[in-house]
Amino acid sequence: MSVARVTTITARSTKSFEDAVRLGIERSSETLRNVSGAWVKEHKVSVSDGAITDWQVTLEVTFVLD
């Protein structure tokens, strides 16, 4: 039997949503053990002078407890 926990994180990229997700997973894996998946809960962009400057995601990261 295994027990998992979910934590919410946000990640931001100047490239794309996909890059923001990748950065969020990579960073959470440095701190959390046994990351097994993530759900993209929210997408946001920052805009300046009519152009997108940042892509941000809110992730629900799942990790299995030891």
Model description:
The chain has a 3-stranded antiparallel sheet, covered by helices on one side. With 66 residues, the protein is α+β, with helices and mostly antiparallel strands. A hairpin with a 2-residue loop joins strand 2 and strand 3. The protein has 1 helix and 3 strands.
Task: Describe how the helices and strands are arranged.
Elements: E1 4-13, H1 17-31, E2 35-48, E3 51-64
Antiparallel strand pairs: 1-3, 2-3
Give the structure's gist in a few sentences.
By secondary structure, the protein is an alpha+beta fold.
Q: Rg, please?
A: 14 Å
Shape: elongated
Question: Termini separation (Å)?
Answer: 11 Å
Strand content bin: over 45%
Helix proportion range:
10-25%
Q: Give average pLDDT, whole number.
A: 97
Spatial strand order of the main sheet? 1-3-2
Low-confidence stretches: none
Count of alpha and pi helical runs:
1
The count of strands amounts to 3
Keywords:
single chain, 66 residues, alpha+beta, 23% helix
